[in-house]
UniProtKB/TrEMBL annotation:
Residues 1-24 form the signal peptide. Pfam families: Prenyltrans (PF00432). Coiled coil: none annotated. It comes from Streptomyces osmaniensis. Keywords: Membrane, Repeat, Signal, Transmembrane, Transmembrane helix. This is Terpene cyclase/mutase family protein. Residues 59-201 form the Prenyltransferase alpha-alpha toroid domain. The chain crosses the membrane at residues 383-401. It comes from the Bacteria.
Length: 410
């Protein structure tokens, strides 16, 4: 679920990295890699890593996760997110200089915009920003009814699904948002593998160069949510069975969701987790996509359907989350929320506390701290009374210890 977890983003990062000009080495004796100052990022931002590609995404996920547990983000964090929006309504992943207007070179995209919409809806009080963002998303809908990561890019399952989530949370009906008569559900149905295929029921990210659809677990988790008309935050669904290629009169989008969930269930059956498909990471667990799969399964069939991967995450995700930062903690909290689990006791970890620590102190937490301090200061005895108590207790313990040492010699 990083920058909507899409292959398009990974490819873009590779291209950008390859095209970046080489920096001439400083040949002076004092030059060293450690001499480079660490860039200063805004105080309102969650996480400490480079936000160039995922700033708005991780900020939005963090706030959505906090909202599910009643935590109110710091005003500075909210202001930072709102400030990333361009005049046309779109969001870029990160704009270091928000005083400058966005232009044609500003890398706005559908994923960060859709995530921001969902976060701002949850926060409340940002109707104008939400309306502008939704209008922009509608303006870049493709002729097949879907959305690509970048405006005008080929539709993909992940982007189309996260935009569906934004439309729904903003009060829109995705089935009524059309381009050339096509809806987002039409686009998703075309990205679902036919039942005759070995991986029938799964979703592809996009067709390959030959037009073939290849099963993608990441895209399938997103596609299930999109086909159900769900956003990033879901509650446990009803016990609808996940069965491949059902035909009991269900609408095509519902059939796609049920079949996609069945594919995920099969993929998770052996180990309880999905496996990474990134180059060089073969045979390694994919924690983020496993969390997404938990949300998708729970959204369709309820908590029981996602129990095995949820338990696996509880036992194995701590190190990954610590290394990955706010978006990872948010994913785990959203998985817990979708299944009714306690994110404050997730395999023994307090995910809420850990997420809060990656950003500015939330308003609710700050208020509680102030109230606690005031309560202590307002004590009729005062702080010195507590000091006196501790001194008396300490002296008493000293006598006891002294008596124990001297007792046998008496």
């Amino acid at each position: 679920m990083y920058v909507r977890r899409s292959a398009a983003v990974l490819a873009a990062a590779v291209v950008i990295g390859a095209a970046a000009p080489a920096i001439a080495a400083d040949s002076s004796p004092s030059a060293s890699p450690s001499a480079s100052p660490k860039p200063a990022y805004p105080a309102g931002l969650y996480g400490t890593t480079d936000p160039t590609y995922d700033g708005v995404w991780r900020q939005s996920l963090a706030m959505l996760a906090q909202n599910t547990v009643g935590v109110k983000p710091a005003k500075g964090a909210v202001d930072w997110l709102v400030g990333q929006q361009c005049a046309n309504g779109a969001f870029a992943p990160y704009r270091a200089d928000t005083a400058a207007d966005c232009d044609a070179k500003t890398p706005v995209d559908t994923n960060n915009t859709a995530a921001a919409v969902q976060a701002l809806v949850a926060l409340g009080g940002h109707d104008a920003a939400i309306s502008k963002a939704v209008t922009w998303l509608k303006s870049v809908q493709n002729k097949d009814g879907g959305w690509g990561y970048m405006p005008g890019g080929a539709s993909d399952t992940n982007s189309t699904s996260v935009v569906i989530g934004a439309l729904v949370t903003a009060g829109e009906k995705p089935a009524d948002v059309r381009k050339d008569g096509k809806t987002a559900y039409d686009a998703l149905n075309k990205l679902a593998l036919p039942c005759k295929d070995d991986d029938g029921g799964a979703f592809a990210f996009q067709p390959d160069k030959k037009g073939k659809l290849l099963a993608n677990a990441d895209a399938t988790a997103a596609g299930v949510l999109g086909s159900l008309g769900k956003g990033l935050v879901v509650s446990p669904g009803k016990d609808a069975p996940a069965t491949r290629c059902v035909s009991e009169g269900l609408p095509a989008s519902q059939q796609a969701a049920v079949s996609g969930a069945a594919y995920l269930t099969d993929a998770l059956a052996k180990d309880g987790h999905l496996t990474s498909t990134l180059p060089g990471a073969e045979d390694q667990p994919d924690y983020g996509n496993t969390a997404d799969a938990v949300v998708a399964l729970a959204a369709l069939s309820g908590a029981d359907a996602a129990e095995k991967p949820l338990r696996w995450l509880e036992q194995n995700s701590a190190k990954w989350a610590k290394q990955s930062g706010p978006a990872a903690y948010a994913q785990l909290i959203l998985a817990a929320h979708a299944t009714g689990a306690d994110p404050r006791d997730f395999g023994g970890a307090d995910l809420v506390k850990q997420l809060n620590a990656t950003g500015p102190t939330p308003q609710a937490a700050a208020k509680a701290t102030d109230e606690e301090k005031t309560k202590k200061d307002d004590s009729p005895f005062g702080v010195w009374w507590y000091v006196g108590i501790f001194l008396v207790v300490g002296i008493g313990i000293g006598f006891l210890l002294s008596g124990r040492k001297k007792g046998p010699q008496a």
